[in-house]
Amino acid sequence: MNRKSTSPTRRHFLKGAGVSITLPFLESLSAATGDAAAKRMVFVSTGLGMNPRTFFPKETGANFAPSPVLPSMMEHRRDFTVFSHMDHPQIFNKHGGIKSLLNGVPNNNAKPGENVSIDQVAASHLGYTTRFPSLHISLGGAENASYTPSGIRLRQETSPHNLFKKLFVADSEAARKARAEELEEQGSVLDLVRGQAKRLERGVSRADKDKLEEYLTAIREAEERLQGIRQWQNVKKPKVPKDAFDPGEKGDGSMDYGFLGPMMFDLLVLALQSDSSRIITANFGMHNKVIDLDGVSTGYHSLSHHGQREAHLRQLQIIESFYIEQFSRFIGKLKAASTTGGSIFDDTMVFFGSGISDASRHSNRNLPIILAGGGLKHKGHYDAKQHNGRQTPLNNLFTTMLQNFGIETEAFNDATGDLNHILT
């Protein structure tokens, strides 16, 4: 892919995970051909936290000794920061904290517009520059923490098989025709309800006007989605040999994380390489099923409530080490995905964390947080405890991420500042 050419040729080839993707001719193909200006965000999370005693390093600074679950990250030592003493100060809802990870807001009491998540702020900023403004997947059950500006919680794929089809399998002619008719019908319905809502607005109370404004905001979001979907309706999806990469039926609902984990992340690399999306959330869910990893024989939730039992702690460490190994492998894949300006990793902020810290105590304090990539100045292990002894709001970090993404904001949600003095 030659950066010197201002007009991409009809056919482009990207290699990843042992397969080739043929990219169609698109005006937005600049990111896939190495546009250094294309910023990306990926958020990886776990539903049952990380054991603080095995996650956090004992030393701070760039030359910290790895904690028991971090050795696999050491090949990227200069490219990530572990943050300790950082959390969402408003969140005290135990396991429910995972749903607030990306916004720091108690969602049950939030009004529409008050609980938008960081990924959706970024997705709204980009719009339909890509086929999918954002992608969301979770293994082991849906645990999404993504909320639109109107407060709608987004759906996750729970199957790499279905995500593969969504990204790379072309719809039939009949399906595309039916979809076009459905989009036209939905557009007509939106026109109708918008007109009715506007007429109602003239004779209702102030409180009802606020409710109608929330309703109209949701309609505007739906219209934007319709326009974006129409824009991509007749653009062919990137092609990939189905039998070479499709996880097949095993990609639906299995607890074999050793198979599904790498598959999920390989798909995410391909989604970024093909510029199918620039905003992604990926989650390992909260459940009590036995995860199919060597040495694990007890349900995941039971292990997280270990009661200091040595056998439970050993199995929990196997699972949490696996999460970090997959995160490290993903970073390596992004580094290997080159652009003319460097690698995809250079322009991708990759976040790892959880809305709960020590699941055995149902604690939402001192969350396990890692940020990698994005061209930021990483610090190894940074202790974010403030001079007053309080934890730093995680939204301070999210503020810096949004600013680095090119979004003008002074504070995201309840942020009290930013971390530009640390990372930029």
Examine the secondary-structure arrangement and name the CATH architecture of the largest domain.
3-Layer(aba) Sandwich
What does the radius of gyration come to?
22 Å
Q: Return the CATH topology of the largest domain.
A: Alkaline Phosphatase, subunit A
Main sheet characteristics: 7 strands, mixed
Helix content: 25-40%
Q: What is the topology, as strand order, of the major beta sheet?
A: 6-7-3-10-11-4-12
How many β-strand stretches?
A: 13
Strand content range: 5-15%
Low-confidence stretches: 1-34
Q: Total helix count?
A: 11
Shape: globular
- CATH C-level label of the largest domain: Alpha Beta
How far is the N terminus from the C terminus? 30 Å
Average pLDDT value?
A: 82
Secondary structure class reads alpha/beta
Order of helices and strands: EEEHEEHEHHHHHEHHEEEEEEHH
Number of structural units classed as domains: 2
Structure explained in plain terms:
The protein is α/β, with parallel strands linked by helices and 424 residues long. The protein has two domains: 12-169 and 238-423, Alkaline Phosphatase, subunit A (3-Layer(aba) Sandwich); 171-235. It is built from eleven helices and 13 strands. α3 (160-168) packs parallel to α7 (257-273) and α7 packs parallel to α9 (310-336). The two termini are 30 Å apart.
Brief account:
By secondary structure, this protein is α/β, with parallel strands linked by helices.
